Amino acid sequence: MNAQMKHPARAKDYGPLPLNGLRVLDFTIGGAGPFATKAMADYGAEVIKIESRTHPDFPRTMGPYAGGIKDPDRSGYFTNRNSGKLSLTLNLKKPEAIAIIKRLVPSCDVVTNNFRAGVLERLGVGYDTLSQLRHDLIYMAMPLQGSGGPQGTYSGVGHTLNVLSGLYGVTGYDDGVLVGPGTNYPDHSVNPGHGLVALMGALIHRRRTGLGQYIEVAQLESTMNLLGPSIVGYSMTRKNPRVMGNESEDFFPYGLFSCANDRWLAISIRQDEQWQALCRLAASEPFSRDASFAGNAGRLAGKARLKPMLMAWTRRHDAFELMKQLQENGVPAGVVQNARDLVEHDEQIAARENFVTVEHPVMGPVVYNGSPSRLSRTPARIACAPLLGEHTDYVLKNMLGMNDGEIAGLREAGVLE
């Protein structure tokens, strides 16, 4: 790409970023794929997101919506996962749209998708085809379970992976009720992370050898890494881990305790000295004077009796105040935070200036997560996510040299949906 070309998604020139000069053609949808390419955009890559008005990226159809107005340009989920990208809308069922993709590919370093295995191949834009147009192309696919095997063509979302990977099997209570991790966790951490590592490795390899390559990130296999200790444990003992909710087999108190105003406090005591410190704070409580709880073994054995006594004590306290008192006395404790706590009250996050407010043309000021990776010389820059189809004309004119008449004809023919 022309490194001097101004990126229209950025409000100002941020100066050199580590991925400046890299162009990515991004077919990814949902969470995992877009999160990986978002990170590339945050570090300077020019990411062209291929979209469709008929079949929009499904986070555009999901809330929360700014102002409560359901609109593809007001989705907080989409906006958070697509900062700094360009949006090009194409109807990939039209041969003219496929021709546009093929004209773009020679200027692209990377192509990404997380469709079901075989989808883009059937459309004529798979790796075998596109790598003929650029010999050093890096092409990353992120199929749900990989492209081989008896379920290689199955589709799904992050919630599917929660189940298939075994995450649901370890997130529950000892009464047998499984509750899951509470979010499509694989979409927001492990899968985009593994995808980015693979892409950076392939780019380094290309710099050394001049060769591109095909990358396949099987999202199920990526997600299974979250269960590493459980899998290793089973391989050694042939026993599945016990489901224990927030508690521990080895220590007590260890878990979540309810406090005043429907807040929860995590307390994790691993040393008897920590228990003694807690008892000094709760000196008027019967459990603080019960010798049978002095050692960890006694607390574990008496958990059924001790837990409700502890809970009765914590419920009378403000969670944040009790957390502070416990921490000041050497007892590991932390409030279970919510989104408001993180954005408005957390002193550590505020001091780190993690959250970035960016002006959005439809939603107004939007709070984005900043990059958790801090590069001292070339820090990431968070720019606005695109409106649906916002950069279609820009891409066609500035990258492919089309004129207004050609673009109008494509639009009339339903190619630029």
Read across the widest sheet, the strand sequence of neighbours is: 3-2-1-4-5-6
Major pleated sheet: 6 strands, parallel
CATH domain fold name of the largest domain: Rossmann fold
Shape: elongated
CATH architecture of the largest domain: 3-Layer(aba) Sandwich
Order of helices and strands: EHEHEHEHHEHHHHEHHEEHHHHEHHEEHH
Any idea how many domains? Answer: 2
Strand count: 11
Classified by CATH, the class of the largest domain is: Alpha Beta
By secondary-structure content and strand pairing, the structural class works out as alpha/beta
CA distance, first residue to last residue: 25 Å
> How much of the residues is beta strand, in percent?
5-15%
Tell me the CATH superfamily of the largest domain.
Crotonobetainyl-coa:carnitine coa-transferase, domain 1
- Mean pLDDT across residues: 93
What is the helical fraction, as a range of percent?
25-40%
Counting H and I runs of at least 4 residues, what is the number of helices?
Answer: 19
Radius of gyration equals 26 Å
**Poorly predicted segments:** 1-6
